[in-house]
Design a protein that fits this description.
- The structure holds three protein chains of three kinds.
- Chain A is mostly helical.
- Chain A is 79% helix and 0% strand.
- Chain A is built from twelve helices and no strands.
- The radius of gyration of chain A is 22 Å and the shape is globular.
- Helix content of chain B is 24%, strand content 34%.
- Chain B is elongated.
- Chain C is mainly α.
- Helix content of chain C is 73%, strand content 0%.
- Chain C contains 13 helices and no strands.
- In chain C, helix 2 packs across helix 13 and helix 12 runs antiparallel to helix 13.
- The chains are: A mainly alpha, B alpha+beta, C mainly alpha.
- Chains in contact: A-C, B-C.
- At the A-C interface, helix 1, helix 3, helix 4, helix 5 and helix 6 of A face helix 1, helix 2, helix 4, helix 5 and helix 6 of C.
Chain lengths: 262, 353, 298
Amino acid sequence: MKAERYLAWLSILIGCLYFFVPLIATYEFSLRARRGVYSFDAYRSVFSDMAFRQTFGYSMLMALLTIVFGMLLVVPTAYWVRLRLPQMRPVVEFVTLMPLVIPAIVIVFGYLRLYNSSSILPLTGSNTTTNILLVCSYITLSLPYMYRAVDTAMRTIDVRTLTEAAESLGAGWMTIMFRCIFPNVMSGVLSGAFITLAIVIGEFTMASLLGRPAFGPYLQLVGANKAYEPSALAMIAFAVTWLSMGLLQLVSRFNRSAPAKA
Amino acid sequence: MAFLELTHIKKSFGNVQVVHDFNMHIEKGEFVSFLGPSGCGKTTVLRMIAGFETPTAGTLTIAGKDQSTLKPNQRNIGMVFQAYALFPNMTVHDNVAFGLKVAGESKSEIDARVKEMLGLIKLDHLADRYPFQMSGGQQQRVALARALAVKPQVLLLDEPLSALDAKIRVSLREEIRAIQQKLGITTVFVTHDQEEALSISDRIVVMNAGRADQIGTPFEIYNTPATRFVASFVGTLNMIEAKVIDPSANRIMIGDQGVTLKQSVTTYKAGETVSLALRPEAGSLAESASGDTALTGQVASAHFLGSVIRTRMNVGGNVISFDMFNSPGMMPPAVGETVTLRFAASDLLVIRD
Amino acid sequence: MSSVSASTTGTRVPSIDRKVVVDWLGVAPFTIFALLFLIIPTIYLIVGAFLTPDGSFTLKNIVDLFTPSILAAYWISIKVSVASSLGGALLGFLLAWAIVLGGLPSWVRNGLLTFSGVASNFAGVPLAFAFLATLGRTGLITVFLRDWFDFNLYSTGFNLLSFFGLTITYMYFQIPLMVLILTPALDGMKKEWKEAASILGATNGQYWRMVAFPILWPSLLGTTLLLFANAFGAIATAYALTGSSLNIVPILLYAQIRGDVLHNANLGYALALGMIVITGVSNILYIMLRMRAERWQK
């Protein structure tokens, strides 16, 4: 018994070292900007950099669009499959698992060949359409997480009974969707939203290959050119990821204690 | 010296004492049940015998040998768990063979012994099945065979029938008892079901809040319960409040009717209240019923259940429930009817709390 | 919903059930999206791998994958993915074991699981920066070893911008992923199995050898495969860490997409096909193993 406990604590210790040392190192490194003394100069440099604000804002906007349009796609689909087409469930689930199997770089490679200026759907033609393509690619990337979060939430509340109750009270499908279904799967929507935020903010591959001014490519550029700013940015990125996940935990814990509203 | 001895066994988890001064001597080949409600400590004592828990105080010996220094895998004890605990990655054959394999027996010896065990539980045809392909009852029988395969000196069963259907429970407990008697193996059986304990045990230990309230044969436990808890836990029971009139003559009053007890109330003072217990099968309304005592009261309800008539009557502020066998010559009493219940004074038990 | 059914007992005209049409219409947006942004692009690449620039069928691209430089890229990718998945699996298993079966207080388990949820997403470019700050030439550990133990890390030939360095960096998100997936599997290990084995005379080692590992190996292997596929397809961290100096397949593909370094567009498709095959097979094996594991843990 005792030996087991020792080994367990030892493993935890090794794990903690492995996980926390890089974080501490990054923080320490980010404070070294000024020679000889610790300062927040690197952070000041980052925040005053126009490119930082632009790209961060751009990525935030992309994340927001991804979440909104992704949910507009996922929630009705999950609902519909549950209610009307249960036989499509395996197919839909397989499709939502594909982005986990096919690497992002391969997916965006396909987009570039398929939707370049000489195809029938020239999505890379202009900035606006490329932005649309980027949002669509982000939706694809976060599809597995969004779908699973929403589907799980729908499984917990009985969508079938909810719909029948609403229908018997005379509600049309728009009302049902937006006033009955959406509010009750909100926890699943928020879970999916936070994971999507974490994924999109730092995403590099797709933004870089599509040539859009996102945060990911900006990070890589700074890494190639500056010394201390990259670690400051890494701390910021980690904070954002931590925040998203923290909010996610909060939402899921809140959902567990509060029963679904009928 | 008894085969399995527990002396002054105590167990605490942190500040909570779960077992208080438990003493028990079990003879070789005896089948003893630990009976009690959830949380009474019966499983804890069993696990201490197995070696999964260490007693905070007291000694535990098997065949005269102190077990406190021995780990569970050194005690040569067989155990059957409530959740069967068959290894899911092994067939029935390999599960039963496990203990023998670990001990390093030869393949031919193992195969012979497994065959013998499977024959004992009559499941030879399932030797190549996996646990998930079998019913609960079958799995538990395999678990029994697995425990017995290594010829343990003691067999422990931790509520083995609680997860099974009622019908299987009855047939399987008979099977367990039959096998136990055939092999003559010392057995400790933990259960919360009093019918189970009564029907198959040589002796029963009734446990309540970490203490052994009574140790005795099923007959003793049922007919002469030592405490109110034992009386109420084992079988149904009528609790009657009576007033002591004459302690030296064992004379008491139930309502306004006087009764002379066979049990002694000499330790009570006149005017004190004493709790009496009466089993429902003890009395009868028949004129010809034997019994030196009678109580008269009003019928509150009478239910005809076929072979049994269950009647409740009010007597001096008490409600007495009694069962009578159906007799074609006697109609069930009507509600409100005044009836006289006849029973033997020796059936009235004094319950000290 | 009313159905407009036109069949009578006499005729055999197929009826169009309006309800069925509406049902399938409901999944139309998703289907269109999936086709446009998932299925067709993938098929396009797969088909393109078997075509010549002028559109005729060929297996030459597949054959060209086996040229030394490309094979080397695949080999490095496989090496890094195997190393980081094995390392991640080992340490992840140890940590998962510690919090589930190690008898530790529950706050340790909750803390580790929460942190793993975050850390498994902390990949990409920032992760590369974090490890540069830790094990780079002026990183904290490097400096610490030099100042306190007089030990020059880089003189031993160690370099963060190498196979070994990339493996260690990848393990930062591989280990948490292993912990997250393996913890439920370990939860399913019933306490009674260990007790039953023990009372039947087995030592700890015998229990693990004869009962626990046989039950767990599908989950362990399956998750390791998942980790492998995860590492194989990753690019951002490697790119930020090594530029193009470490020639793993995703980086090669990246360069190819950007500037056709292979001078053969269809070879790029073949490269992508190779990646899909490897990650696809790993995932299929993972699913098969997981189904096997779940059957036993009923």
